[in-house]
Task: structure prediction
Amino acid sequence: QKEVEQNSGPLSVPEGAIASLNCTYSDRVSQSFFWYRQYSGKSPELIMSIYSNGDKEDGRFTAQLNKASQYVSLLIRDSQPSDSATYLCAVLLSNDYKLSFGAGTTVTVRA
Amino acid sequence: DAGVTQSPTHLIKTRGQQVTLRCSPKSGHDTVSWYQQALGQGPQFIFQYYEEEERQRGNFPDRFSGHQYPNYSSELNVNALLLGDSALYLCASSPWDSDYYGYTFGSGTRLTVV
Result:
């Protein structure tokens, strides 16, 4: 079982719609969760972090965490063409120093 | 405030050669991690350096080695290059409490092995 798994995509949404990205992780005791955005040919950029169960909102982005289900998601509201990128889920596993990444979900926002 | 800087940005090497990639962490960060990212994949953890020691290593052969200097900057060395080593190499730095702040990535080094 992979440490971090994401829905493979690609995900295509019309401009103004909600994009929903999902991620599951294997370590039940993990405490820190991050979403990174990576534009084609660029490096990952941190856009959200979440540590407690529930929702965390930052502008048009909402991260949701459910530790019992070992599930973290990212919602992008009012999607814009500039949101077209690959979104990486990252988890800091317990008893581990490294940040583990999923394979990423590529989102395309159609104008 | 400079972020994470990596050099060079692009590199072309021949199979069997050796390469050294360099990274300067963000100001205030003392931990450096290196990742390999193949096309269409997520970053794969190579190793992490803290206090000039390799603290954790991923599933990479010992052709991959590194170093951290007292000023926290770091190098990644790859010996006996293979075609499969072609990838984007990312350096990420973090403060001691990275549980809350995550990692900051540099712009990466694109390595092509021919």
The mean pLDDT of chain A is 94. Chain A touches chain B at residues 4, 31-32, 34, 36, 42-46, 49, 51, 88, 90, 92, 96-104 (CB under 8 Å). The radius of gyration of chain A is 13 Å.
